[in-house]
Write a structure and sequence with these properties.
By secondary structure, the protein is α/β, with parallel strands linked by helices. It has three domains: 2-88, Beta-grasp domain (Ubiquitin-like (UB roll)), CATH 3.10.20.30; 90-183, Translation factors (Elongation Factor Tu (Ef-tu), domain 3); 196-323, Rossmann fold. It is built from eight helices and 17 strands. The strands form three sheets. Strands 9-8-11-6-7-10 form a six-stranded antiparallel beta sheet. A hairpin with a 5-residue loop joins strand 8 and strand 9. The protein binds FE2/S2 (inorganic) cluster. The site of FE2/S2 (inorganic) cluster has 12 residues, from loops.
Length: 327
């Protein structure tokens, strides 16, 4: 059994237990979120460089050099000395400006915050000192409202979620939130001659919108195909916004794909009942040379990435933002 020396006290760590779980089990207040090495909520600093290195995948080079590490990913088998980073994880404060419901279980939030980011990246939002969840950005830094930079977030409400009910209902416009980020590298490739395929389901539309806006901002020249999937018609949102962009850009084509139109609802011309995997395979049989962006549930992203790779896309040209649902 290893010991964890944290803020001058000794804590035990069971075999196979993470630093995060061990410290929380013994009463320490440590921020956490995804427990998957994604949201960076749990980042601590370790004095032992070699051990820290194994638990740093996804952190910036600067963070790695400072021996920051993911406490949720570190399972020590020897005594480690850890502490909180001096800048408390680099959180910034934001203010909720407005919120609107865009689908039965999806809300769009606009948060004012001083944060530099690239469209398609994500941030971790904290409800309190220790509870955070990650959400992707649908906004573009060049967009502003009344001279104010707003972060656009699409939140899917999970009834028993730790954060989404609070974000979708309890947090009121004018109230502040704590944000960490930006993070992630699902961003526009900045190659205007490369054809692009953007495919997403659910709130995977948020990072896709960010990437799309950036491509258009850079006056992307080659074709851009956007496939947005949903289980039922009610799951589609931002359709008018996307169709408006398509009407204004000749190289942009947007299609909405419904898995199951159970009630035989009338679909507009841009929407069809189709399996997104099959539709993609039939309509994009050769993805050689494409830049591919895949966003949404982890299972969707994993399956689609494999399909696109087998369809000819180079792995280096496939960017993903896979959502891990963690309450
Ligand atoms: S990265 Fe550790 S809890 Fe999210």
């Amino acid at each position: 059994m290893a010991d964890i020396i944290f803020e001058g006290r000794v804590y035990t760590c069971q075999p196979g237990e993470s630093v995060l779980d061990a410290l929380i089990r013994q009463g320490c207040e440590i921020a956490s979120g995804c427990r998957a090495g994604v949201c960076q909520a749990c980042v601590l600093l370790m004095d032992e460089q070699e051990i820290a290195r194994g638990c740093q995948q996804g952190l910036s080079p600067a963070q790695q050099k400072l021996n920051h590490f993911f406490a949720c990913q570190c399972r020590p088998d020897a005594t480690v000395h850890v502490r909180r980073p001096a800048n408390a994880g680099g959180r910034v404060s934001g203010i909720l400006r407005c919120r609107e419901q865009v689908a039965p279980d999806i809300y769009r939030l606009y948060v004012s915050a001083q944060m530099d980011y690239q469209p398609g990246q994500y941030v971790t939002i904290f409800k309190d000192q220790t509870t955070g969840r990650s959400y992707s950005l649908a906004s573009h830094p060049e967009e502003s409202s009344s001279g104010e930079r707003l972060l656009e977030l699409h939140i899917k409400q999970h009834e028993s979620g730790a954060l989404s009910p609070w974000l979708c209902h309890d947090l009121q416009p004018g109230e502040s939130v704590s944000l960490l980020g930006p993070m992630g590298n699902c961003i526009y490739s900045a190659n205007p001659q490369q054809p692009l395929l953007l495919a997403g389901i659910g709130t995977g539309l948020a990072p896709l919108l960010g990437v799309l806006k950036d491509a258009l901002h850079h006056q992307h020249q080659a074709s851009i195909n956007v496939l947005v999937g949903a289980t039922e018609p009610s799951g589609l949102y931002c359709t008018e916004q996307l169709l408006g962009l398509a009407a204004a850009h000749a190289n942009l084509q947007v299609e909405f794909l419904i898995q199951n139109n159970r009630n035989n609802q009338a679909l507009d011309p841009a929407t069809r009942e189709a399996d997104i995997y099959q539709y993609c395979a039939e309509n994009f049989p050769d993805l050689k040379g494409y830049g591919v962006y895949l966003c949404g549930a982890e299972s969707f992203v994993g399956k689609m990435r494999k399909q696109c790779f087998l369809g000819g896309a180079a792995m280096a040209d496939i960017s993903t933002d896979a959502f891990i649902v963690f309450g």
